[in-house]
User: What shape does this take?
Amino acid sequence: MVVVGIDGVRFDTLASARTPRLDALAAKGFLRPVQVNPDGATMSGPSWTTMVTGVLPPVHNVFDNDFTRHRIAEYPDVLTRVRAHGLATYAAAGWPPLVSAASGGPVFLGGGLLPNDDPGHDLAAWDTTDDTITADACRVLAGPDCPAAAFIYLGAPDVNAHELGVGPAYVTSIERSDLRLGRILDTIEARGSYAEEEWTVIVATDHGHLDEGGHGGDSPEERTAWIAAAGASLPPVPPATLEQADVAAHTLTALGIAIAPAVGGGHDGRSPQGPDPTQWRLYGVPFGARD
Ligand SMILES: [Zn+2]
Assistant: This one.
């Protein structure tokens, strides 16, 4: 089970970019737009936290890129939940709050690989960081200690759009991300035990961008994100309705981990509840379960 998160890839730009690996994945599964839930701003912090916890910003309490008041310990990230079932996990990201204490993180409570100091606004440094992450992820995914669940974050497209707007360099950065996705997919498919393993791959972005670069508002270009997935755990018919929170729910389901059932009104992943995980449920559901 692998989730590849690519930051800030606008849905209409993605359609114009040459991304053969993502296209092939979509042909085996689906690639669909998803609206960033109106309970959260179109920003990296709330969107990624929603995707990996399965609950919405009023519950995980991440409303922007300041994570200092997060409630992820009470509503854990999906990798932490997977490890609680005795399975190994892996995370790597060049954006520090996902895997380190920067800005009040980490979103992944167990941390993960952070290759360098924050590459900041340096586009070349982001390419290096994303390459380093891809190489390390492939090393781990190829080996005997391959994790049951991995989250691999690629950040170059978002920084390109912020620095240069939605133009040729942004498209190139999306296409380079597709090459990195290809390396990850090739590594998985080259595993000697691949035929016996039931892999699910999810690829997703957190938000779009304005033409001039930037996000956080409510325009369709910012609010429209997307999710792609393929693999053994997918429903036979591609889902018509998706939420970003479904990424966490589907990840757990793909690994055979039961999602706590609903226990009454209001316990819906949208409103804060108590810390007992049997007393609240995810807002996210497995792919197809909304239809
Ligand atoms: Zn972002």
About this structure: Residues 7-8, 44, 158, 206-207 surround zinc ion (CB under 6 Å). Strands lie at 2-6, 30-35, 89-92, 149-154, 200-204, 224-231. The chain has one domain: 2-279. The longest strand covers residues 224-231.
